Amino acid sequence: MRLWIENPLAILAEGAGGGIVVEGSRIVELVPAGGAPSTPVDERFDASRHVVLPGLINTHHHFFQTLARAHPQGIDKELFPWLQSLYPIWGRIDPDMFRLGVRLALTELLMSGCTTAMDHHYLFAQGLEDAIDIEVEEARALGIRAVMARGSLTLSVKDGAAPPDHCVQDEDTILADSERLLNRYHDTSDGAMTQIALAPCAPFVVGLSLMRKSAQLAERFDCRLHTHLAETVDEEEYCLERFGMRPLDWLEEAGWMGKRTWLAHGVHFTCEECERLGRAGVGVCHCPTSNATLASGFCKTRELEAAGSPVGLGVDGSASNDSSNLMEEVRHAVMVNRLHYRSSSAVTHRDALRWATEGSARCLGREDIGTIAPGKQADLALFTMDELRFSGAHDPIAGLVLCGANRADRVMVAGVWRIVDGVPPGVDLVALREAHSAAARKFA
Predict the structure, then answer these.
(1) Same domain, 18 and 153
(2) How confident is the model at residue 2 (pLDDT cuts 50, 70, 90)?
(3) Could you count the other beta carbons within 10 Å of the beta carbon of residue 25?
(4) Average pLDDT of the residues in 393-417
(5) What is the CATH number of the domain that holds 106?
(6) How are beta strands 50-54 and 380-384 bridged, if at all?
(7) Are 168 and 93 within one domain?
(8) For position 233, what pLDDT does the model report?
(9) Domain Amidohydrolase-related: where (predicted)?
């Protein structure tokens, strides 16, 4: 089946004013403005009302936190007190609640134009030993591409850390389950729909031994490594006091300074550390909304990119962002970075879109997604501009970002429409919201 997505209102690709041709799961041809496909097509989709973007790629999230949005215990706090307040609440989660949290997060991401969803899940309370399996099942049911990062905690309240004692696991259990998941789900082939990453949580809740052994396992299975790093000043002070080194030195001590690694936040790197990260090829997921909500600071996106680090975009957990909307995150990235660099031209709407697509793909080590080009996977997000907020927008692509687009009209993953007329076919959104809200009330 050859599908021509024809004559879009605008498209984020050079030489494709006449649209693109999709065959199977791939883009096979870009059609110039006023042109037609080089060979006959089986089906046509009129995209004259649509702005076509590469599918957005989320590179940091915590799905279960959708159950704790705007929780009174977490409002108006910075990271460490926020964690101390919410960990006991999160520790009450059960498998049914968790599944609904995952399903809602994935659905919300997909509806925002996200075609590849990453989750960093580290909470394995009793009954949640199969949490990553649940996430894979839910992603496959929705048809969204997924990278599930098997997170971990080894330090708890008894060690002076924030996580409840019953939510952490010992090193052997973590490594054995990581290997099980890699064997079962990790696909390194071109066009892979499911991949596993290894993701010990952060310097203040895991030890160097687990970090080093995770790096060895990642090398063996050819998977990515992910962790939180340099998110707050408190973390920096903790590492200096506990380890006698800065967070990035701790990462290097763990053997993680390489192209397999991408980090969440990266707020408090010095310019010299940005250079080190760039030389090593370490990626950074920028989380502007979460960093603003928790008053963590500003990520040096321009310095990181200039040094050679891939920069991606992530919504982070829905208890610090309070949303799982990646298109909204693109707009927030523009605003936060302009504030940081004190320049309206320092970061453009196209920069933020690049972070959410091509940059995020580089963070995940993927060359088959992130851009609209022949041979790439047919992962696409199509937005209309029929709402009042877009009226008068002269540049459609800029208008999506600057006027606040937040919901795609059509989303394609691997050549299949997964959002049609703004909703995922076959998903009862009202029933999902009601079930999820009922589950969230258990956290009251």
Answers:
(1) no
(2) very high
(3) 18
(4) 98
(5) 3.20.20.140
(6) antiparallel
(7) yes
(8) 96
(9) 51-385
- Domain with 357 in it: 56-363
Give the per-residue pLDDT at 310. 98
| Terminal Cα distance for the chain, rounded | 50
Overall number of domains in the chain: 2
- The predicted structure's pLDDT at residue 338: 97
Same domain, 344 and 217: yes
What's the whole-number average pLDDT of the chain? Answer: 98
Q: What is the pLDDT of residues 240-272, one digit of tens each?
A: 999 999 999 999 999 999 999 999 999 999 999
Record the tokens describing residue 247, joined without a space. Answer: 């967070």
- In-domain check, residue 438: no
pTM: 0.98
Q: What pLDDT does residue 45 have?
A: 98
Q: Are residues 76 and 25 in the same domain?
A: no
Q: Would residue 444 count as lying in a domain?
A: no
The answer on 394 and 258 residing in a single domain is no
Domain co-membership, 243 together with 320? yes
Q: What is the CATH number of the domain that holds 385?
A: 2.30.40.10
What is the share, in percent, of the chain residues with pLDDT greater than 70? 100
